[in-house]
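[Solved] Which block belongs to which protein?

Original post:
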Amino acid sequence: MALVLGSSRSIRDRGERVSNAMDFRPTAEQALLKSTARKLAEECFRASAFKWKGEYPQANEKFLREQGFYGVSLPQEYGGGGLTLLEELLILEEVGRVCPDTASLLTLSGPPRIIAEIGSERLKRKYLPAFCHDGQKIGIAISEAEAGSAVTELRSKARVDGSKVVVDGGKIFISHAEVCATFLTFVKFDDGIGAVLIDRGAPGFQLGKPDINMAGHRQHSLFFDGCEIPAENILTHGKDAFKRLIQAFNAERCLSAAWAVSIALCAFDFAVEYARQRKQFGRRIGDFQGIQWMLAEMAMKIEAARLLAYQAAMEPTRLKSSMAKAMAGEMVEKVTSDALQIFGGYGYMREHPAEYLYRLARGRRIAGGTVEVQKNMVADELLRKGLNREE
């Protein structure tokens, strides 16, 4: 690992770093981690930012991995960096502030984290080192034509047949599918909803043609026609499987929130710099109260969402992670919209960073669970337990 932090840390040390972060000041190690990630992003990703045009930034992914910024919060025994989820968010934020497309690669640690949390030892040994060292990416396959937000209505089925599992059905809206070696796939077993790991090239597996989303990125469909996988590739099934999966997705929601924050910070930085330089009516536009209030409100919204994301990373519960994702999803759309407004007609032009960031931000209210679904989960938790109650 090329990380600046030491590689061996005890559970106690990690707990102390989390508790120290409650005063909202990074530890010396975390500050060094942030500055290192910032320097890396400025030196290596700034020149190519906003030039990917929907293409997967493969060269940047390889560089991130070589520098030890890939899988940083996965357990060390499986090739990860052994850092906390909060520290992974700090890295993601600094990278995304410079190049949001490259930062999206860091959110790919979500599926491996789920395997690390609820997978068998065999699955951990099989998939986690391959992700950390070789860059073998794992996609998430949940949504179906008739099962978007209503995950419990999915129709893809899995049938255990001796030493193998046979899967039939299909999935839609799979991001980064063109580069994923494996797909963490939600399916319906006879005993309820569970998940399996389906490798690309498995008999009966087919990758569909891509659709292009608003941000210009490809999203594929997957088809399973008698698709056969080893029974050992069952991630979880049974009575409590769905509950375990939803709980494991808490970290995924934290990563999504952090990416939204990084997109907003990127737009905000552009807007501030423009407000300092652009002159109208003989004055910098940043001297006009209307622009000043916009910038102030943008900063306040970013800080609120950022702190929620940090809090959720330190305590990745359903309530905290859903709050963070919902807040960040709404915040980033507003902030990027205001940044575009500050640029005026220039920001509205295709190929300008402001218009791309707005298109990219809009997906954060939808992907990985809509803002509305997150609020439903927040309300459900509040009605059952209240707010800030330990019991």
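(Second protein starts here: sequence line, then its structure tokens.)
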Amino acid sequence: MERDKRNQRLKKIASISVFILLIVLLALISNVTDKNFEYIVDESKLQIIYFDVGQADSTLIMNNGKTILIDGGNDSDGDNLVKYIKSQKISKIDTVIATHLHADHIGGLDDIIDNFDIGTIYMPDTINTDKQVEEFLDAMERKNLSYEVPVIGEKFKNGLADCEVMSIDNDTKDLNNSSIVIQMNYLEQSYLFMGDSEKK
């Protein structure tokens, strides 16, 4: 009799344990499936997101409700960039920086311009006849936007982060070294975004 009661208690404990384990497993599974565009950032912190665009470049910086997008990867990256940025409940990109006019840096920026309100666009005053450059300029024209050519030492803010242009060279024959280089300071940290600038 006592053994039967003990067995019933053990079965009950085992059933409860299995039930709890199933709940935990379901919670874990729900957290790891299809999370490509579900990470929501904390606006009170500086957020820097480096997109995987192969050998290309694209970086989203957010702080205190303000956003910077540095470069837009390749032409084929545009759709994914748009999906991710929209998933962050972002409707306006305050500053777009096209560091230089190579296709792997400005290829997706036409999609960005088409899908978001845009504040300031910075880019070097250089020329490149690539198709992606034409699409970028056409997207600006469709929305009646123009770009600014910054100068070394020019400063601007992104939320509470301070940004300064450290380098730019409007040399059409050397696009990499014409890259806009931005230093950003936030609290005790300093960040350098260099485009394709080389040792020079």
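Accepted answer:
You had them paired correctly. Confirming on the second one: The chain has two domains: 1-33, 47-193.
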